[in-house]
Design goal:
eight-stranded mixed beta sheet, 13 strands, Alpha-Beta Plaits, 406 residues, five-stranded antiparallel beta sheet, alpha/beta, homodimer, 32% helix, Alkaline Phosphatase, subunit A
Amino acid sequence: MANFELMRQLTRAEGGKIILLVLDGVGGLPMEAGGLTELETAKTPNMDRLAKEGSLGATIPVRRGITPGSGPAHLALFGYDPVEHPVGRGVLSALGVGLGIRDADVAARGNFCTLDDNGIVTDRRAGRIPTEEGQKRVDILQGIEIPGIETRVAVVKEYRFVLTLRGEGLSGAIDDTDPQVTGEKPLDAVALDGSREATHTAELVQQWIDEAHKRLKGHEPANGVLLRGFAMDPNLPKYDDIYKLKAACVAVYPMYKGVSRLVGMDVIDTAGIETPAEEFDRVASVWNDYDFIFCHIKKTDSYGEDGNFDAKVHLIEEIDAALPKLLDLNPDVLVITGDHSTPAKHRSHSWHPVPLLLWSPALHMPDYADSFGERACYGGALGQFPATDIMPLALAHANRLEKFGA
Amino acid sequence: MANFELMRQLTRAEGGKIILLVLDGVGGLPMEAGGLTELETAKTPNMDRLAKEGSLGATIPVRRGITPGSGPAHLALFGYDPVEHPVGRGVLSALGVGLGIRDADVAARGNFCTLDDNGIVTDRRAGRIPTEEGQKRVDILQGIEIPGIETRVAVVKEYRFVLTLRGEGLSGAIDDTDPQVTGEKPLDAVALDGSREATHTAELVQQWIDEAHKRLKGHEPANGVLLRGFAMDPNLPKYDDIYKLKAACVAVYPMYKGVSRLVGMDVIDTAGIETPAEEFDRVASVWNDYDFIFCHIKKTDSYGEDGNFDAKVHLIEEIDAALPKLLDLNPDVLVITGDHSTPAKHRSHSWHPVPLLLWSPALHMPDYADSFGERACYGGALGQFPATDIMPLALAHANRLEKFGA
C-alpha cells in the first residue's frame, strides 16, 4: 500500500512528467472459454509496441475478489487505499452528478418514496418513477431555504437523488432517515455523536425534510424523501503534499472530475469534447503546465456494461490510433490501465485484476510480452499488485523518489 | 511481512541448516530494450542447475517503487520490515564505517562546515573537502573527553563523518544542529522530549560541539561541525529469539557486519579475505557451529554503481564457479538473492524487484525456469513477494516451522 508518510519523505519536487491514461473498465474476459478478451482482440499496434518496450502487470483495485465502484477504484489508482480512506456514499454520489463538494459541505443520498395520508412509507422507491419524474421533483425541491445554509439537489437516476448542504459548522455524523421497511414513518434526522455540529446539522436536515414533504404534497407516488449516507469531504492528503506533483485531470464525466478534485488535481475544462482524440488534444494543450496528467476515457466501461464486446474492441482501437498524440508529448512515464474490469461477458464492473502497461524511455523490467492484453499482463514483469502501488512505481520511473535509508 | 510473534510461536529449535547468499545489488536490467540483464548474460552453470531443481521468485525490498539503501534492504532480507522498524541514520552510518553500536550508544551523522569569525555557517559542506582532509579533522576530534562518556568519530567520505557517544543514561532524542541554511549559526543541541536522558545527552553533545569548534579553529574551510540523525540501537528482536537460529555473518564490509550484529548474528572475522571463493571457504570453516549463515558479496553492487556491466557479469561468473564450495557443505536450504537491484544501466541502487533462487533438496514448487535470471524470476514459482518473507520460506524448507493451528 502507498504510505503517505513514506511518500512525503521520499518524493522530490523535480523530475519527469507522468501521464496516467485510464480506460474505464478496460479489463475484460473472453466471451467463451479459450477465446480472446476485448483488449486481446483489439488491433493496437501502438500499445503493442509500448508493451514490448515497457513492462506489463495487473492491478488489484481494492482487494482480491472485490468489485469496486468507480469512486473507490479511482482513489486506489491515485494511491489512496479506499478501505483505509473511505469516502462517504453521499460525497461520491454528489461528485457523480456534478455537485461539487467543498471542505465543509455535507452530502446525502436520497430516495423519493410514497407516503400515505398518515405519513407512513408505503413504497420506499416511489414506484420506481422514471428519471424525468425524478427530475421534476428535484426541480420542486431546488433552492429550499434554510437559514444560514445553502441547499442543492440533483437527480441521480429514477427515484434517486443527492442533497448537499453548504454552510458553517456542519457535520456528516447524521443517521439515515430511511426506515428500510414500509409501514413506518421516515425516521427523524438525528445526530450520530454528541457534537454541537451534528446536533445543529440534524436540526437543519429535519427542517429541509419538513419543507420537502410540504412541497411534494400531491405529487404522488413520489411525495416523500428518505435520506442516507450522510458524509463530508474526507480531507484526503493532496497530490502536491504527498507526491509534490502539480496534477491535472482531463475527464468528461463528473464523477472523475470530482474524485480528482478530492485529491487536489486541477480539473481541466472539457466542454464539447467527445472522442479520445479530442481528449488527448486537451491533454496536449495543458501539458506544459503540469507534472502529472490523469486522462480518463469513460466509454470502454459503458460498452462493457452494455455487454457490447465489439463496440468495446473498436473503442480500444480508436484509442490506440489516437495514442501518438500523447506519445508526441514525450512523457517520461506513461501508464495505461483501467480503474477496474468491466467484461462485456459480465455486463457489469468485476473483481478481475486490471491490465496495466507501464512505459518509460528507460529502466523497464524486461519480460516476454509482445502485446497489451490480459494474459500478457497477468504474467507480466510487474506481477499482480495493489493499484495503490501504481503511483510509487510511476514516481520511481520519473526519477522523483529519493532512496530510502542509507 | 514477517510477524515476529508468529515466528516465535512456530519456529523449532531443531531442523536443517540454511545459507543466505546475498550478492549485493545483483538485480539488473538490459542495457538496451530486448537485451539481457547482467545475471542473464553471465554463464552460471551451477546456479542454472539450482534454478532447474529449485524455485525462482523476485523480492520487493521495501515497497514497490522504493529504492532502498543497504541498511534497510538487509533488514528486510533478515525479516524486519524497514518501514515498521526504522534504524536511525546515525546508527546506519556508524555501522557503515565500522563503529560498532552497543545497546546504549548514541550515534549521529556529521558534516564539517565552514564558520566565519562570528560563528555563522558560510558553507554547510566545507567546500566539499576531499576524504583525506576529512580524515585529518576526524583525527583532531578523536578522543574528545566528556566526563562520563566515551566519544568516537570516523570519516565517512569527504566532509561527512560519524560521531558516537557511549555511556550510561543516554538518549537518541536530540534534534539536528544543522540549520539547513547558510547565514545562521549552528543550532544548539536540544532534547526532542522532556526526558532526563535526552536533556542530559543534549548537554553532553553541546560540550562535544564546543570542544570540537575549539579544536578546529584555524582549520578552514572545515572549522565547524553540524550534526543530524541522532539515533540509538533500535533493539530489534534477535535471531535466536524469533527464529531459534544460531546465526553468523560472513561479510567483508562494515555495514553488513553491523546490521547482522543488530539482529543478533555472530560476526565472523574476515580479515584478509578478498574473493568470493575465500569467503565461501570462510563459511565452510565455521559451518559446523551455526544453523544459519549469511554470506555477503559486495562487489556486484560496486560494479553496478560503476556502470560496469561486463565486470558485474564476470563477478557473477566467478561466484558461480566458486559455488561448489557452498554446495559441498550440503546445506538444507540455499537462498541466492540480492538486497536490492543495482543495474549497471542505472549506475545506482534501484527499486526493481530482486531475483531470488531458493534451493533445497526437496519440496520445491516446480516452475519452467532453466536458468537464474530476471525474466525467469519475475515469473517464477514463488512469484513476487516482500523480502521480509524470505526467512519464513527458508525456515519452512529447513523443516523449522510447526504447523499453525490444529
